[in-house]
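[[Encoded backbone]]
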Amino acid sequence: VPLSRCSVTCLPGTEKNISNISCCYSCTKCSEGYYSNETDQLPCKPCPEGFWSLPGSKECQKWKIWFLDWSAAYSIVVMIGTVIGALLLVFSVILYILHREKPIIKEILVISCLMKFGLMVSFGGVILFLGSPNIHLCRAQQTMYGLGFTLCVSCILVKAVHTFLAYMAFNPDRLRMLRRLDKPFVIIGILTAIQALICIFWMVFDPVNVEEQQSKTQLLTLNRLCSQGSMYGFGAMHVYIALLAVLCFGLAFKGRDDETDPIVFSMLIHLFAWLCFIPVFITQYESRPIVQISGIMVSNYGVIFCHFAPKWFKILSEKSETLKAIKPPVDTHTDDDSGVLCRTPTGTLSIRTISQTRFSIAESEPCNWDISSLHLSEVTTASFRRRRPRSQRPRSL
């Protein structure tokens, strides 16, 4: 009996769709997430859990999970930057404690230490972005950055308030009223507590979580990332920090002087960094942890180099100048065993000893000669140099 086929055989990776005409069918590729490993297979089979396939696949492949691995190049750069930042903060604390009696340190020592503690907590939150995320790490990384940097900005705000009060000194009545609000540690505590309440409400009512989404740039890859939960809570935390930064900038700019320049520039760096990163954060889902890490690092280093580095330079330069000032000037010293060196207002004069028996100068005699008082001619000096010691001259008969 002759074999008659009106359609070709459906190969693996396709499925057979029977048409209304007898013995006729069409072959279509299996859709994404389905596979067929036999010829003329009627329906494509779905991939088991944890596996996936591309359209027209003969088999399913296991998902690749992507996250910021510790061995990735970006993670290594982040770790190096974090360690350097932490070491700079430790160096700053030690330097401030050793020079705590200096006027530029004495009044701001406690507040500066609180700033450094807040930055250290913020750097610690950066490390939690690395590695495979879980719900506890996701909550900790957001909370540590929010509370740490808020504490730092609150301390900066206290400095800005002091400069603003100095600017308002021309109005005694208004200054007296404003000084009632000049409670540094109360201000720092209240502002940080408000951020803590925002984080608590965020984590209780709509907390962050871990989610896996298919990558749009890599095949068969799931991105394991921390979700922000409620965008209202995430937005409230960042907007609150931004409002404090704007307030610091406004007060410092109003009473601007040499002491407020670090406040102005550090807050501008923070605001500019986040204004640049927010559009990328919203549009690029896969890059969110990288964007947030970059924003935190830029903000932290902006504070370090604007607030602390100038004081490091000033302290170390003053110490160097002090060491030079206390070093006694030496006007007279022995050049070597064969001469005496005398310093004069117009230059340096060296007279070498011709012979210990023929020409000597007492060490106790003050060396305050003037160049004009020395009448040794070149011929005389040369004759002294040509004279031999007594022991080498011929005896007279």
Observations:
- The two ends are 156 Å apart (CA to CA).
- The CA atoms of residues 277 and 283 lie 10 Å apart.
- The chain has ten helices and twelve strands.
